[in-house]
What does this fold into?
Amino acid sequence: MNYSNAFIPTLREVPSDAVIASHRLMFRAGLLRKLANGLFTYLPMGLRAYRKVEQIVREEMNAAGALEIKPSVVVPAELWKESGRWDSMGESMLRVKNRLDNDFVVSPTAEEAFTATVRDELSSYRQLPLTLYQINTKFRDEIRPRYGVMRGREFTMKDAYSWHANDASLDDTYQAMGQAYRRIFKRCGLSVIPVKADSGAMGGSGSEEFMVESDVGDNTLILCKKCDYAANVEKAACALDSHFRPSIEIAKGAAANTPPYEKIDTPNVKTIDELCAFLKTEPKSFIKTLIYKAVNVELDLSSAPGCEKLERTKPSADAPEVYPIAFFAVAIRGDLDVNEVKLASILKASEVTLASDADVERLTGAPVGFAGPVGLTALPLIIDSTVAGMDDAVTGALAKDLHYKHVAWGRDFEAWMIEDIRTVKAGDICPVCGGELYTKMGNELGHIFKLGYKYTKSMNVTYLDENGKSQTPTMGCYGIGVDRTLASVIEEHHDEAGIIWPVSIAPYHVIIVPIKYDGEAKTAADKLADELTKNGIEVLLDDRNERPGVKFNDADLLGIPFRVVIGDKGLAASPAQVEIKRRSEKENRNVDLDKAVAEITGKIIEELITLSRKER
Amino acid sequence: MNYSNAFIPTLREVPSDAVIASHRLMFRAGLLRKLANGLFTYLPMGLRAYRKVEQIVREEMNAAGALEIKPSVVVPAELWKESGRWDSMGESMLRVKNRLDNDFVVSPTAEEAFTATVRDELSSYRQLPLTLYQINTKFRDEIRPRYGVMRGREFTMKDAYSWHANDASLDDTYQAMGQAYRRIFKRCGLSVIPVKADSGAMGGSGSEEFMVESDVGDNTLILCKKCDYAANVEKAACALDSHFRPSIEIAKGAAANTPPYEKIDTPNVKTIDELCAFLKTEPKSFIKTLIYKAVNVELDLSSAPGCEKLERTKPSADAPEVYPIAFFAVAIRGDLDVNEVKLASILKASEVTLASDADVERLTGAPVGFAGPVGLTALPLIIDSTVAGMDDAVTGALAKDLHYKHVAWGRDFEAWMIEDIRTVKAGDICPVCGGELYTKMGNELGHIFKLGYKYTKSMNVTYLDENGKSQTPTMGCYGIGVDRTLASVIEEHHDEAGIIWPVSIAPYHVIIVPIKYDGEAKTAADKLADELTKNGIEVLLDDRNERPGVKFNDADLLGIPFRVVIGDKGLAASPAQVEIKRRSEKENRNVDLDKAVAEITGKIIEELITLSRKER
It folds into this structure.
């Protein structure tokens, strides 16, 4: 392809909202243009790279036994009403009415469409397991689309769904998908961090996110310096505190030397910091007690303190019984924060929030700032495991301007539940290997997830098992954002001058730059382009009448992996020579013109093979 | 691919609305399922065939120098407001409001998105000509979606757009696209009828439709038995009537022997049929005079009879001046029909309809059924060229129950315009070669069209020419319906038993059917599949535990071009044999097992080459 025919509108200036490298470079290198906020047009150079990501995803899905299908992008609302998500998806789902006043959805995801398709065809266990996928347009009406295609409104997702007769079969496919994802990202030249969303102490492994490091990432990741432990901070665990007492008996023993707890006057002292200053001690010595309000609690509270009068209701016919509202006291060591995602998960609640000041006063008998575990009976007390090792702590005393000191768990108070509810932070200890944990910001590129029966039950999918009995299949889902993956390749592979494409994703493998595109240089350039093309190498030939500096700068900006410069001087040498430079390296080398084709072809093929080599 | 892993849910029953072969067979052979009216899911077998059509289109577009890009499917309404089509597109365009109450369009076509993208990048004449295309999702909210993907609501279109500095350049690309379209359809195994939409007597060639014959086609085509003349009936011309008199002088001469016209009483006679019975003659002897009401007439009527008082207005600031409403008398030979598309085109009117009874009475002084050209002065008279050769005709006499006989054009009345306004029909004479014309029903698969300046002017696209002067480029557009092309392949290639895929579109090239998939037959089948696959041949291996009859029927239904049957008897022969059958042929042949791979590979490659061979 000749440069002048390739429609590559490079830019010096970039949109002011392009704050990350991939957004800037996709605009500067002429890969992308904006149609509206969060809506883009891929230009030819961008689409070539995009199609390579798509094709890698397709090849690895096929290799993993998944079959590609293509449902419509616009789907009838009826399907979303069946699954219940017509009501629960919120405003990010784009809803449309057509001329007949029927409701439709511009698909944000496709569990419903796939499940409906399979429902009508599934009859026998012999058809299972079944994994189907699409690579198709999606729409999510982001309130704040930004960072270019990293968070657009319209995007392309590879979404796969699988159906299984049992959990073992689901796990097989789940593992195969996890392997396929690792290969996909490796072939794209990406360093991903696989994050088990409910890993470590939380048990199980029904969900894994594939993250890339990003300063503007949506997720905080907790990583171990020694092992490959990686978790989203929302779910991350850490090793138990060394003070942890596994039982009340041991705790009582440990507290034997602690003086009995006693009241201390703390006038006008409300925060932990003020208390530290007042008592000349550290936050680690305090037990912080917070009152939480939880909504739609599914956990059984029939024997929980203070919950005797709570009654369960059913929010809807199909839903399980829940307590619409319940309050809980949560105690944690003074230097730590409560992880509300963990708390909600433990309570099986749809939402947890700090209680209002009035609720706190009503339930603790004291204003905010003086709650404590000793003598607290009006509501259930949940303590973080760190508290189950504290045998000489300061706590609120359930009265204004009063605290207790010398408080010991097991001796002075008991808990309704002991759980891991802390937010893990840098410096905590790895739950797997005992190494030190640190944090990174990350963006999610892919997610594999064991869905279970959510859709197959609500949408009434059944098959006949080996005994002719009707059964409901279990289900998995597996997504990858194609646009975001492409942008992440640029995030990981660029420098000041431009993009540095891996050969697997590069729009072209080689850019040939004749110093002047005429005479012998033109003949040599055309011949080289022709021979490389015959070898299956994708060549961009800079046929423009521009200064060499302009051509070199554009070649660097476009990020084509190999640059071949053809000048009269090299051609005049004996034997004739050209200059080859890898975009990723600083040095260039002179190579005999008649060996250039073989050398470049060999290097590109070698690199493609390396990227796609199966890991042991 | 093993059959049992391929998710091919074949059906015996098909939906009752599946009235055409492709719709029936796409459901029966497990290519397609319905999500809602006009919305479908391509299943794996369907998508494999679909992707082949898509890839053929892509290859031919690239070969013609077009560059692929990808705008979003959902685009901002602002673009459609700029072009004016937000108001003119009507209800088939799916409009959406997002959560911020902004208007969007689910693209039915993409002139606006492409033009907006090019507008921002185009600066110099050196960038022209430029041809961009996409293969992307479209939506048109059809009132009556039917015939499966032949007329769905959501569909995939290849749409290309080109920009040019001058008409010659536009014509070059237009011709290249026409050639690419011919190659695309040939490679798909389709017999298309290229129809110049304003061909023959109408002059010019700024639009060409690529039609396939279809009983349920939307278009009536007029074709010549002798030459390749083909036209949409809306625009079709035919040779002038042999009686045609090129001038009034000649007409007067021809009428010299006709008696003077005279009144005849025709009590209770209103229709041409009644009049024929009454006068014992044929419709060809009558001049039928119809009164038309035309809306927004752009044609200059300042010197037209009866139009002295008409005033022009501007419907909108940018629009040309028009007469909001005007009436015309249209005379045509009694056995012919007026073509209202031609009439509207001549008048440059947005719409023409028959006038109301009241308007007819007001303008002709007689009730409906008695209009005629003689003495008609209240409105302009347009006569079809057939009337300009009638020298002894019967006409209405502008009074109830009265007609004239012996009426001659030129002698007894003159016309404001003589035009071709007849609807051509089977048996008419070809305007090109004089052969006999016949009709077919057809479906449009593709359309190439010289757009001119419609979008570049309304959306303000400019570039600097060689003299640094700002210019507006001219534009072409070129569409192909991918789904419709795929369905048309099945329409043209099927029989009672199922589909008969051309090798270029077949989801798999070969189906291997072991009579029993175990023992030696399994070993031979696996080896054959393996070796064919290594040659790049796509193989479906029927590994199911079904009776041979079931497998053969499914192979016929699926339409895989080559079937290889492996049985114990053939394997026991010396040398071992398999049976090869082409889906398109009745006979099968025994072939040595060790020669089967070479033979099948050779035939498939030969056929792919034949289909893609360039025509001279």
The radius of gyration of chain A is 31 Å. Chain A touches chain B through 53 residues (CB under 8 Å). Chain A has 16 helices and 31 strands. Chain A has a mean pLDDT of 93.
